[in-house]
Here is the input.
Amino acid sequence: MKTIFLAAFCAALTVPSFAQHPTAEAPGDKHRTTHLANPPVAGISEAEAVAVLDLVNQDEIAFAQKAVEKSKNEEVLAFARQMIVDHGENRRKLGEIGIQPANGELSNKLRDKHLGISRKLDRAEGSDFDRAYIGAMVDGHNGLLEKIDKKLAPAAKTAALATHVQDTRPVVEAHLEHARRIKRGLGTK
Here is the structure.
């Protein structure tokens, strides 16, 4: 019995290290595909999903406040006021869930994109502002629907966040359709 154990032990010592580690490659084997023993989970955490939703709410309110200050178009003004109300309410409800937001790659990219939109809105005036604001609303709400479906809903593991995301989606769809109607009415320059 000792001989079998000793033989097995010695054999184990002679096995190359690449055969023992799931991500190691054999020397000179540059075409071999490696697989992680525990691959990273695709998607985002609940905390980042909350950060994304909170960021969207904050920035939609900020963009709408700019519209209230700069626009003279009644449709744009009514839409902006509705964004302030709806995104304020969504933000309040999100805060009641009690999940602390944590920024990640998605929320950081979104923050950078929103900064560019804010700068563009700051520079625009008159009907150019209206088109820029409503265009940003169409693009933003369309993008948010995609994020809800592909990132936020799958990340929602707790019942409260899953319900919040589910309840948010039809409101975002309604905002998108409203913004599209206004955009058609504004035409292009």
Remarks:
- The helical segments are 2-14, 17-20, 46-70, 74-97, 105-123, 126-155, 159-186.
